[in-house]
Amino acid sequence: MQLIDLRTLLTRLLDEDGIFRTTDVLNMTLNSSYQLVALLSQGVELTHSFTLGANELFRFMPDDFFVPISLWTGTTRLSPVRSADLDLLNIDWLSAASDTPVYYFMHGSLTPSATLWFYPRPTVSTRLRMTYAAMPNKMTADTDIPRLPAEHHYTIAKLAYAWELLKERGFVFAGKALRTFNDFVTDLNLLQQTVYKRTPDRDWLMMPWDAEAVRRKLFAFEQPIAAAAGADAGDLK
Amino acid sequence: MSDLATILDMCQLQLRETPIVSTDDIIRWLETGVRRFCLRARWLDGLVIIPAKANCAIYLLPGNHIATTSVYYNETKLQRCNNVDAQLVSPTGPVYYYEDDWQDEASQAAPAEFAIQISLEPLWALQQMHAQNTLGRRTVTFVAAPTVDGNVSGCGSPTIGMLEGQVTSVDLLYWPDGDGIVYALDTTEYNFLVFYKAIDVLPYSATDTINWSDGFDMVYSAAALNLALGTEDDEYDRYRAWIYGNISDSVAAMLNSMSINRKLS
Predict the structure, then answer these.
(1) Residues of B with Cβ-Cβ distance to A205 under 8 angstroms
(2) Helices (H), chain B
(3) Is 70 exceeded by the pLDDT of residue B141?
(4) pTM to 2 decimal places
(5) How many structural domains does chain B have?
(6) Shortest CB distance from A135 goes to which of B6, B193, B215?
(7) B240 in the same domain as B145
(8) What is the rounded distance in angstroms from the CA atom of residue B255 to the CA atom of residue B248?
(9) CA–CA distances in Å: residue B79 to residues A86, B123, B131, B194
(10) How far apart are CA B32 and CA B14, in angstroms?
(11) For the CA atoms of chain B, what is the radius of gyration?
């Protein structure tokens, strides 16, 4: 669907509820929905090549960078790690001698200075090819099309519809908005499943010996949502 | 990037049917909303270099610090320990660290930034260092204190502070001055490098030119509206407030899940 199609669809949905919005408002809501859907599903994938200079420890990522999916030097794939994993591997990894890069980790996604860090740092300039989940640009022209599978475009409209319903007062609108938002979450999960099927090795490096994952699960501060949910459950009891 | 004005517009559109609220009210709700969302999501990363000062063990962490990911001294990883366990180890230099909240300004154990307010020198590098409020801030204490001052190119013996800026290349921290000129400092040698989870930029006035990632405009405004409508007496508005909270919390939970379960940082 083009932007104009999405806007027409949203206008008709809102018409049923007697709600009118200007084109600018609808475009803004649809764009916000589109970007949030892309972010949470990781459904927008792009490939980008860049050169990591000799001895460079990290490199800045494109403005639309969200999370890395795969990184290659020639036909060799690099492995994602956390900085904490590298600490276990080599406590001096920051100053380690240069070699062929094997591992990488991300820092600062969704900030103005997103970077990918490498270990070991390369001895010579190295060309890298990266596929990454991106934060798409806003749609501006009516003919712009979301970079997501067409069968999932309606998911964007659902979130936008819920958002617009929430601007209205009254229990009916609020109840409808909540049901629509819950529908949206279900659809978003479907899209995410599709994306993960397309690239099933996104999480493939969660090895049994991943002590860092165990450590993170042990620390309550790493699980604020679970902790908060537990507190709520306790309150209800 | 979404700017502050866009998000304020989104909030005002949402609040147009409710009793009038001022822009300042929305700013305060937005500020708290951003804090709450970032605390739940633990997605955004921060990086700061803290110049070491000989014999000084306590240093303030950045104001937007949530949780420390890694700490390095002279490019070597430091080990985290509990406060009560610090007495069990006796290293001769920074090997362990623990975190605490700074609450006792009357004691002799002054954190590092106190020094900068006394001895700020007219060197451009030091002017970039932050002198910040301390009460209620988090501190990091090193066991034991460094024995030498850290190297910061451009000044022989740096006063303690905090270097924040845009990092480029190896061992260098760059930041623009007011005229857009970019300076580079050698910063990691015998200094502390801290990776941490951060809170996003907070709004302080409607005229701020803050830019946030596009992905956050809807969830930040949802988080602000959760607070704004939650103050209403009308039950319908309180219901809407709950839904807005549900939206921002759901997104935070998804990002948090990615952050914990995947090797992203």
Answers:
(1) 263
(2) 4-14, 23-41, 113-119, 124-127, 217-230, 235-261
(3) yes
(4) 0.83
(5) 2
(6) B215
(7) no
(8) 11
(9) 13, 33, 27, 12
(10) 18
(11) 21
A50 token code pair: 């860049």
Structure tokens belonging to residue A64: 């639309």
Q: How many residues does chain B have?
A: 265
The answer to whether the CB of B143 falls within 8 A of the CB of B81 is yes
**Residue A218: CB partners within 8 Å, gap ≥ 6?**
none
Q: Tell me: the pLDDT tens digits for A154-210? A: 999 999 999 999 988 888 898 999 999 999 999 998 898 888 777 766 654 444 445
CB B77 to CB A82 under 8 A?
no
**What's the ipTM?**
0.83
* Residues sharing a CB contact under 8 Å with residue B193, sequence separation 6 or more, in sequence order: A94, B47, B48, B49, B50, B71, B72, B73, B75
Contact (CB<8Å) A185/B250 = yes
Interface contact flag, A168 B250, Cβ < 8 Å: no
Whole-angstrom Cα distance, residue B265 to residue B260? 9
B126 shares a domain with B108? yes
Q: Range of B131's domain?
A: 45-198
Q: Please indicate, yes or no, whether residues B124 and B28 belong to a single structural domain of this protein.
A: no
